[in-house]
Amino acid sequence: MSQGTVLVIGGGVAGALTSLFLKQNGFLPELYERVAAFNDVGVVKQIKGSLALAPNGLKILSQIPGLDKKFLDNGAPLNYLSHRTSHGTILAETPIDIYSLRFGYPLLGIKRTVVLRLLHEELNRQLIPVHFGKSLCALTQSNEHVTVEFQDGTKVIGDYLIGCDGLRSTVRQLLFGSDQPTYTGLTQTIGITDRIGQLDRSEMLNVYGDGGTHFITYPFNSKEACFACTFRESIADTESWRTLSTEQALKFIHECGF
Ligand SMILES: Cc1cc2nc3c(=O)[nH]c(=O)nc-3n(C[C@H](O)[C@H](O)[C@H](O)COP(=O)(O)OP(=O)(O)OC[C@H]3O[C@@H](n4cnc5c(N)ncnc54)[C@H](O)[C@@H]3O)c2cc1C
Questions:
Q1: Where is the secretion signal located (predicted)?
Q2: Helix (H) or strand (E) holding 247
């Protein structure tokens, strides 16, 4: 017997995985996502790069049969963790291939779009309803039910509601009041390159520059690596996402001292 219908708001990593685990535990999850199509789900649209999935993350994924293998097949295990200064001094170099022996899984470089695709394929495979173009704007609750309203005027009733709608969660704001994150002025330039060069030993390389800048790069498959350069911008500048050309990105990275 079903434990009840759960309305899950937001189809990023959190919403997709929450829905899968709810179903595994006897609930009936229904996922509602504000973007019109899968390609724009999560922070993926803005962040073109990849992420490094820790061994404990893969361990959690393994509780959904076959999902850990799909992630491993679509990513690159990282074998070295290196830290250097931008002047070339090696601060530390640690072989981390031991993670697989010790924890059962490696640190895995994997493309963000692939993470979301694999999770949404699993939602489809398990016939969990995913509704796109549904932007939650209001909610009411009684002792028995919760009713949510979307910007297109439609309403849905469920037994439970879980907000997985990201950093500026509407669910959280409706329940607990206005709660905007504070921009601290840290900016990151992210990209993908097929010039993996010295990373062919599957290394996550961290480089620390003068003035607190940080550069990180690691492969996420046999041909491509991601890179990200973090530096400070004036807090007065507006927080935003913007796309840089290759030339602009390289100029930025050089200006950061790398
Ligand atoms: C630059 C950067 C680098 C990072 N690197 C890593 C890394 O290497 N490893 C790692 O593990 N993590 C990393 N993270 C963190 C990771 O990306 C986030 O923790 C993760 O994406 C959060 O997932 P989420 O599902 O909670 O939120 P999101 O991915 O933001 O998804 C929220 C979803 O909710 C939807 N939504 C929002 N409002 C509504 C609404 N009102 N109604 C319906 N739907 C709504 C949105 O459209 C979106 O699809 C990084 C983050 C950033 C910014």
A1: none
A2: helix 246-255
